[in-house]
What we know:
This protein has three helices and no strands. It is mainly α.
Amino acid sequence: MTDLFLIVQMVLRLLIYTFIGKGVLAVLAGPGYRSNVVWRFFDVITLPIWRLTRTIAPRFIGDSAIGFLAVLLLIAVNIGLYMAFHSQGWLTPPPASLPG
């Protein structure tokens, strides 16, 4: 079960870092950031999570804040996943090494 946890956690972290990279690239590339190949690649990766976040977010939250909200939700899912696995006893600490 630890391997499953690590794989899912890795995917969640990849999505979080891709959202952050997308935002940083938009700031660094200037007004023409949407034509940047790397930004479009990041957009393809993050679009399903962005749409899901837009669907569950209240209407008064603007589209410009959805990326930030998506990162917060992904972090919450990551923490919740850890708590669920830990509470079931599926994550155990490594055995302590004895000095000597």
